[in-house]
Amino acid sequence: MQDVIVIEAGRRERNYWLDLWRYRELFRVLAWRDLSVRYKQTVIGLLWALIRPVLSMLVLTIIFGRIARLPSDGTAPYPLMVLAGILPWTFFSTGLSEASNSLINNANLISKVYFPRLIVPTATVVVALVDFIVQFGLYVSPVGFSSSVVPEQWRLLYSLNPMVGVIDGFRWCILGGQSELYAPALAMSIGVTAFLLWFGVRRFRMMEKSFADLI
Prior knowledge:
By secondary structure, this protein is mostly helical. Helices cover 70% and strands 0% of the residues. It has helices at 11-22, 24-40, 48-67, 78-105, 107-112, 119-140, 155-158, 162-174, 183-207, 211-214.
């Protein structure tokens, strides 16, 4: 049986939030479209999400830290303090700018079919959220530091981040054994990576039949 949409005065307001749930598939399609367009427009793709805050951090550190000589918070290095402010600000500014232009950019869709219009600006915020997750992931992974600085009682939990084992193993190979290789953490990262690979391939296989309808 097909759903019947009844158009009558006042009915839309009563069912607006329920319609948001009914049109959740549209939200997913719009969010995926915005993500695809965003990262296809740059040569370096997703790497741009990491380069942008680092460049901003360098500029702000030179201007406010070196030239204006403004102090940091406590004993924290000034670049680290700046970076802690850039990440949430980038998420906010990207989400605000993308959401503000979303209705204009989707004018053709809005003028042709009915759906809760709140879906459009909300879906664009997903782009800013992905940028934030990628940026945050760089700084919680042992890229700029050694994972040996993590307290012993937290190292196994920290290794739930699959990149911990990858980075530590790569360093161990490149540095000729000078870098410490923590075997339990490596095993944990390998296990998490294997699970994510299995789950990702499984989801991909389930959804690939509908790719032609979504792209």
